[in-house]
Amino acid sequence: MSLAPEVIAPGFRPDQLEGFRIGVTSDRRSGDLIDALERRGAQVLHAPTLRIANARVDDPVIADTRAIIDARPDVLLATTAYGVRRWFEVADAAGLGDALVEALSASAILVRGPKARGGIRAAGLNDVGMSPHETTDSLVDTVLEQYPPGLTVAVQLHGFLDPAQLDRLREHHARVLTVEPYRWTLPDDADERVGRLIDAIRTESIDCVTFTSAPAVHALFAAAESVGAGEEVIQAMRGPVVAAAVGPVTAQPLVDAGITPVQPERFRMGALIRLVCEHLEEHRVERLVTRAGPVELRGSVVEVRGRRIQLAPAGRTILRTLVAANGSVVSRERLARALPGSCDEHALEVAMSRLRRTIGVPGVIATVVKRGYRLDL
């Protein structure tokens, strides 16, 4: 008998993320992340900014594998679990699996992180160490610091390896061999999801964007820049749109852009999910007591008198602006400018009327004649 999710996941609540809209930029294993967020009530926008693509034909991987078998390298650098698994799958299919394991059994195998270590051990091999910071450059640092020059070094490439790291190895070692079991590719031009994510970030109609790799961050910034929204996206993620990174390597390009992402202490998917839940509940739920009773705004949902009501994008923008003003008057001009896609005061009046009808409780939003609107606290 299987246990219910509430039992297996301590602290799990199906309404933890109700009202929040979250962007997921990962491709591989995105289903696990999306399912976990949706089971907690979130609305998810999946927009993989990069895709993992295996080679259309395995001939180059097989040729590189034969070269590595013949060379019997002194050192092997394993960078990703998926890359290791994919490499050995191709080798096995080509009848080279046993020969590859035998050739690498005498190699000093260094892994970039625990996942790559798991891939190596699943292949029947053992590593001799892990990079101190779970990064490729620190992995190369380890080789250069701990091993004499003039060796034969093999590198399992991942989808976004900096060529400068290979150059560092080539400067010190006699032979550097590589194998590339997969690579990152940009989404197809017909895939409009990244464009929708960019629009959601720049209009602040999304609450959080998750990242599980640094290349995904770079790709999002490049895509935003290509449509003239680069600075808007960065500014939004410096403010109300939370950027959540699985670890410091993923977070670095965000930090370089002046964004302060949230990141878990343990660089794992489960820890990222828990952190997103905790952070949004603690920092992105606004609570005020009005004359009509308590009002709680969580993403696109407002709770009034025990009822949770889904807001339209314009209504969400208006109410969020009024909540931020904490009872002070907000001018019509300012509210109109904040509306997505409109600076028209007539559009504001229509949106305000719909918002009041949606809330259904008189007296929450007060009109201040000739000045604007405020929450009636």
UniProtKB/TrEMBL annotation:
Keyword Repeat: no
Cytoplasm as UniProt keyword: no
Annotated PROSITE patterns: OMPR_PHOB
Residue ranges of the annotated DNA-binding region, renumbered to this chain: 285-377
Coiled coil: none
UniProt-listed Pfam families: HEM4, Trans_reg_C
Record's protein name: Uroporphyrinogen-III synthase
Species in which this protein is naturally found: Agromyces sp. G08B096
Organism phylogeny: Bacteria, Bacillati, Actinomycetota, Actinomycetes, Micrococcales
